[in-house]
Amino acid sequence: MIQVWVPGLGREFEFVLPDSMRIHQLVKLMAKILMEEYPESNAQSQELRLVEKQTLLALHPRNTVAESGMADGKEYMLM
């Protein structure tokens, strides 16, 4: 389970991720969930990036969760 901080909402969310999912698919899914739960957020997946919170490095959209080194306990930001 990873933690994702969404600065635009001022909230943190937890996600369980399949290792084979690509980052661009993950961002699209997160944006869809956020739009359903928070319609005022206007989250457009093509504009969002998943960033490692500690290093502020964006994850490559074509890499998988496993290739990106995403793991339990790591923190990310959806920006």
Describe the protein.
The protein has a single domain (2-78), classed as Roll (Ubiquitin-like (UB roll)), CATH 3.10.20. With 79 residues, the protein is of the alpha+beta class. It has one helix at 23-37; strands at 2-6, 11-15, 50-52, 75-78. The protein is 19% helix and 22% strand. The model has no long low-confidence stretch (mean pLDDT 91). The protein starts with a strand and ends with a strand.
CATH superfamily: Phosphatidylinositol 3-kinase Catalytic Subunit, Chain A, domain 1
Question: What strand line-up does the widest sheet have?
Answer: 2-1-4-3
| Annotated CATH architecture | Roll
The biggest sheet amounts to: 4 strands, mixed
The residue-averaged pLDDT reads 91
Low-confidence stretches: none
Number of domains: 1
CATH class: Alpha Beta
Quick one: overall form?
globular
CATH fold node name: Ubiquitin-like (UB roll)
The radius of gyration is 11 Å
Strand content: 15-25%
Strand elements, count: 4
Helix and strand sequence: EEHEE
Query: Structural class, from helix and strand content?
Result: alpha+beta
Helix content: 10-25%
Total count of helical runs of at least 4 residues: 1
User: How far apart lie the N and C ends?
Assistant: 19 Å
